[in-house]
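Project outcomes to date are best conveyed with an example. Our students and postdoctoral researchers have been running inverse folding experiments weekly, and each run begins with a structure described purely in tokens. The record below, which covers 347 residues, was selected by the lab manager from last quarter's runs and is presented without edits.
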């Protein structure tokens, strides 16, 4: 019915634009696209949209919205129809109301995550081969969003059945599948049945052909856990650690560098001056075949969170950003997650 193409840009609420600029621009190498009194628009080298990160000055930090690009103008109307049918809060923004964007649909997903959808977008000069401009962590492009919601199964059902996303990988809170049979690449039909009966702890969902555009994890929510940007290589990620330490921002390094078992990504998690969390990562994989069932991980598999077995810090489990109501601009209240037994550790 419609085609969501990809992750496009995020708006973070921040309390101090100068402090944010020192972190994102001076230390990490994001490019300044446009500056206003209360907003800073930033981008990266490989991107062609005008920007991928908006920093908006507010009194309380958090998430403004997560934006997706769609294939055609009529896709926006089709998504609005879903919002209407599912009783979700939504509104239209006129062309130009957002810098560089055409008509935009703003809506709250079933858990309250604020989403924007647009088709028309202003482009800018492609900087992929302007190696003379490469700085900082040499971050190339925005890649994905990761959210916490109280009911991961509900999110999986909505994003796959109503919005056309495909699951690439998932975490089951039950160690052993509830239906008998061996999980094998040679028997995809069985894997599709297993995910239908598993207690979903987390699910990775994609539209573009890599591991994810949006991930949903069971947790206090709705909250934004992090936004992921794709780096040139593993060395860029290691260099980011050296640079942050050199300029006195060592406290912004929260987790990593390391490799995830789930997604195979090489990762580094950072907290910006307002504690919004970003991930710089590389090394996931091509995923084009939508008949491929999602890869199943047990929540107690030590290699899942970090392939080398290290546990994430407590803050990584417990802290996340509140999200904004698309009509009032207030931060939404949260609910506790569904609880599936007592895993030895969770991601
Ligand atoms: Fe991520």
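After processing, the design step wrote out the following sequence:
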């Amino acid at each position: 019915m419609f085609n969501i193409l990809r992750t496009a840009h995020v708006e973070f609420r921040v309390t101090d634009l100068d402090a944010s600029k020192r972190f994102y621009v001076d230390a990490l190498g994001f490019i300044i696209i446009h500056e206003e009194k209360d907003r800073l628009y930033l981008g990266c080298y490989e991107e062609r949209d005008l920007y991928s990160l908006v920093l908006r000055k507010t009194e309380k930090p958090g998430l403004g919205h997560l934006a997706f690009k769609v294939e055609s103008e009529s896709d926006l109307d089709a998504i609005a129809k879903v919002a209407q049918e599912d009783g979700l809060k939504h509104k239209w923004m006129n062309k130009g109301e957002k810098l560089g964007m055409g008509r935009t649909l703003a809506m709250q997903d079933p858990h309250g995550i604020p989403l924007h959808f647009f088709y028309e977008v202003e482009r800018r000069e492609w900087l992929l081969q302007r190696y003379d401009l490469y700085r900082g962590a040499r971050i190339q492009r925005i890649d994905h969003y990761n959210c916490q919601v109280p009911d991961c199964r509900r999110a999986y059902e909505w994003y796959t059945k109503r919005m056309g996303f495909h699951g690439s990988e998932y975490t089951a809170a039950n160690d052993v599948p509830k239906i008998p049979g061996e999980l094998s690449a040679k028997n995809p039909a069985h894997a599709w049945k297993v995910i239908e009966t598993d207690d979903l702890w987390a699910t990775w969902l994609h539209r573009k052909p890599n591991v994810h555009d949006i991930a949903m994890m069971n947790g206090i929510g709705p909250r934004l856990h992090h936004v992921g940007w794709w780096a040139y290589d593993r060395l860029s990620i290691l260099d980011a650690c050296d640079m942050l330490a050199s300029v006195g921002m060592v406290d912004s390094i929260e987790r990593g560098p390391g490799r995830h078992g789930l997604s195979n990504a090489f990762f580094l998690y950072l907290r910006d001056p307002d504690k919004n969390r970003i991930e710089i990562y590389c090394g996931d994989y091509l995923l084009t075949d939508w008949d491929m069932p999602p890869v199943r991980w047990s929540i107690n598999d030590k290699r899942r969170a970090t392939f080398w077995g290290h546990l994430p810090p407590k803050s990584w489990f417990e802290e996340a950003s509140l999200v904004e109501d698309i009509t009032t601009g207030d931060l939404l209240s949260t609910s506790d997650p569904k609880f599936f037994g007592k895993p030895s550790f969770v991601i």
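Confidence is low (pLDDT under 50) at residues 341-347. The chain has one domain: 4-126+138-322. The training component of this project remains on track.
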